[in-house]
Amino acid sequence: PPPPSDATLAPVPGRKSKSKGPYICSLCAKEFKNGYNLRRHEAIHSGAARPPRASP
Q1: Which residues contact 35 (CB under 8 A, 6 or more apart)?
Q2: What phi, psi does 24 have (nearest 5°)?
């Protein structure tokens, strides 16, 4: 086979070479290390309000 061209070896613009994890937002493709952070992020897309903070 022919050697790969420079175009196939170039990194994708705007993308870090190290993946954060297997949890990817289905709406914007943002990657997360764990499911908790993904679910918290997805609430942004749904417009769900975060619960109010408890006062000390």
Answers
A1: 23
A2: -120, 130
Instruction: Return the bridge partners of 53, or none.
Output: none
- Domain residues for the domain of 35 are 19-48
In a domain, 32, yes or no: yes
Could you tell me what percentage of the chain is helix, strand and coil, using 3-state DSSP and rounding each to the nearest 5?
30, 5, 65
Indicate the pTM of the whole model. 0.50
Say if CB 14 and CB 20 are below 8 A apart.
Answer: no
Tokens describing residue 1: 């086979």
Domain membership flag for residue 30? yes
Quote the tokens at residue 7: 């175009």
pLDDT of 16 = 54
